[in-house]
Task: inverse folding
């Protein structure tokens, strides 16, 4: 967990600089209720994707040093099954106790998503069929925020629990992925080690004798993050089918090529 903490903090320092640069590039509006934040939009989301991808790759290698031994096609599948959960975990952790009204959540390190102002998300030049896209977007947002609000009603997690959840999500592979036995054991062993370290943290640093409720909270959150990931993945792929927006696979290619554009 100490290794994950160091890697994550380094990642945040890198991404903060990139987010500030991209906020200017995308001409984001300042969030009126907290002047240190911006209102996210679709253009910023796509511009930020390559940076998140690169930094998530570093975290993956930190948690699973043998990651580069995995075949390339499986690496892409792992990223696809992970990135939505990782993003949702960051949104949740960054939103803890931050906002006074409902319908708000962090949407990156310095941006916020406001469910009451969905039009801001699609305030991007070059999009076609905006009205149709808004109706689709509203449907998915309603579902996303229902799950997210449920998460916010659970017990807040500590920084150490947050770092442990990063590692747990990385090791919690999609059941459709079939890794070589040797690599699968690495993921399984790493996940077991994370839970062992987490229990030591509960006993020695938090002074808990019974920490079953905290472990249960983490598992509940993990399940909700999987729901949010499915929502995001389905939403992105539907946008690609119906509108002039890149698919999940195309976004992975964007990340590899670092192309800063939104439409196909």
Result:
């Amino acid at each position: 967990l100490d290794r994950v903490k160091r890697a994550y903090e380094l990642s945040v320092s890198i991404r903060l600089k990139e987010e500030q640069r991209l906020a200017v590039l995308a001409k984001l509006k300042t969030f009126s209720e907290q002047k240190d934040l911006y209102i996210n939009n679709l253009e910023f989301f796509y511009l930020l994707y390559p940076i998140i991808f690169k930094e998530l790759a570093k975290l993956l290698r930190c948690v699973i040093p043998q990651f580069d031994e995995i075949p390339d096609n499986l690496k892409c599948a792992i990223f696809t099954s992970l990135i939505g959960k990782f993003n949702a975990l960051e949104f949740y952790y960054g939103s803890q106790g931050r906002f006074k009204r409902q319908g708000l959540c962090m949407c990156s390190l310095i941006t916020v998503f406001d469910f009451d102002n969905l039009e801001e998300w699609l305030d991007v030049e070059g999009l076609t069929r905006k009205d149709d896209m808004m109706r689709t977007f509203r449907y998915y947002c309603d579902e996303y925020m229902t799950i997210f609000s449920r998460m916010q009603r659970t017990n807040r997690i500590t920084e150490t629990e947050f770092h442990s959840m990063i590692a747990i999500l990385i090791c919690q592979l999609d059941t459709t992925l079939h890794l070589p036995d040797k690599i699968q054991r690495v993921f399984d062993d790493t996940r077991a080690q994370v839970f062992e370290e987490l229990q030591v943290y509960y006993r020695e640093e938090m002074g808990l004798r019974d920490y079953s409720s905290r472990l249960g909270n983490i598992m509940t959150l993990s399940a909700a993050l999987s729901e949010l990931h499915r929502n995001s993945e389905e939403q992105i792929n539907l946008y690609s089918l119906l509108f002039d927006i890149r698919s999940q696979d195309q976004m992975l290619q964007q990340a590899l090529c670092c192309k800063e554009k939104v439409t196909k």
Remarks:
- The beta strands are 38-39, 104-106, 111-114.
- Residues 72 and 78 are 10 Å apart (CA to CA).
